[in-house]
Amino acid sequence: MATASVAFKSREDHRKQLELEEARKAGLAPAEVDEDGKEINPHIPQYMSSAPWYLNAERPSLKHQRKWKSDPNYTKSWYDRGAKIFQAEKYRKGACENCGAMTHDAKSCMERPRKKGAKWTNMHIAPDEKIETFELDYDGKRDRWNGYDASTYAHVIERYEARDEARRKYLKEQQLKKLEEKNSKNDGEGEGGGVEDSDEDDDNDELKVDEAKVDESKQMDFAKVEKRVRTTGGGSTGTVRNLRIREDTAKYLLNLDVNSAYYDPKTRSMREDPLPDADPNEKFYEGDNQYRMSGQALAFKQLNIHAWEAFDKGQDIHMQAAPSQAELLFRNYKVIKEKLKSKTKDTIMEKYGNAATEEEIPMELLLGQSERQVEYDRAGRVIKGMETSLPKSKYEEDVFINNHTSVWGSWWKDRQWGYKCCKQTIRNSYCTGAAGIEAAEAATDLMKANIARKATSEDAPAPAEDKKLATWGTEVPEDLVLDEKLLTEALKKEDERRREEKDERKRKYNVRWNDEVTAEEMEAYRMKKVHHDDPMKDFLN
Fold first, then answer.
1. How confident is the model over 235-251, as a mean pLDDT?
2. What's the number of domains the chain is made of?
3. Residue 508: what are its φ and ψ, rounded to 5°?
4. Please, which residues have CB within 8 angstroms of residue 283's CB and are 6 or more apart in sequence?
5. Which of 31, 228, 375, 418 would give a disulfide with 383, using CB separation of 3.0 to 4.6 Å?
């Protein structure tokens, strides 16, 4: 490759430069070095390696063509985790009050809080931690593996190797066990053991770990499909293996009818059966719903339904949060359900018996004759010989309470139900028997006599008596005597009351009332009362 064109002062300088390059190619001249002392490859064009003749030719002039902003303080080292620098023997001022280290305070201390800190006990002083500060460059800040120790991955490799070793040892023991069983069987068998030997050889072949087959499975990546998983135009990619055998016919080609089962090209699912009328023994695909309603899918569906129903009834169960707990509860539920079902069956069989297990009744008894005589009429109804059985009710029958000998409702009188044994119409009453019936009849007779006597007394009019009305409107007793002094005082009080009624200003603020009225006061009120029908009312005052 030719070098970059550079401006020279004359042809002579240009010729000297070409000779120098030829000598360097032949190894006769020392190689050209840059400012850092590194050899410059003449086959790679060194752009702007020398400045034009009109600028300073000693060093390049354009800073953006070189790594001019390089800080030597940048580093890619990492913290020395767990390193200690100094172990003190006594507590120092300013140190952590809990452990005694100088590199942190009590608030940032990572040790267990002591009952008495190192500040007061001056014992078990913790060493000072090594504190480092780094100034990372752009790449160092964004390096996710910065500070990672590759030697820590050795324990992961050891664990996997131990697992593989245990697996190989287990398979070897199984092969030896099968071989011993085969040898023990061959000792006591003759010609008939040929077919069985071949079967056991096949079993031994299945138990062997063929490393060649494993290598082939690792190399069989022709069916692997790399595509984006659950992303819309971006995101992480994943490996999706196409498990369909290429010799099988695609499900959307089984029935080309437009009105047949719908095929969703996005999810590659066909729920319905594309060939519902075909022979079930001949078709290998019956729709995706077949897998949902059979096998482990059906059991998983029942488990989900049980978890939902248990959660609705108050159980703290969640299928997604605690699947193991949900499955264990479902198993316990099925066991308890079977026990309860068998218990119910045993109870019914114990109560009513099991006709399937009982001995059959002989035909002589089933078709035999009896001495009972039954008479029928022309319509086929039983006239005599067979008592008709009354249909039983769902309510309690013939239950006698409170010492009664008959049920409630066995007696009716005056639109009331009652007991026939004692003729009482109160349901919760106790039975009084014949004595109660006699007392009830006597009370009835007495009531009728009283009613009749009252009716006869109402028919005869009572004699009118001339009664002298009392002074206050009631009957006047025969021995009523009025006191003249009290009557005079009552008349004066009545006059004062009437004057107060005429002039409201003379009425006192606190009026004390007396509800007790004497005969004299009532007589004074009657005497002072104005009768509107009296023709002399205008001359009273």
1. 63
2. 3
3. -70, 160
4. 275
5. 375
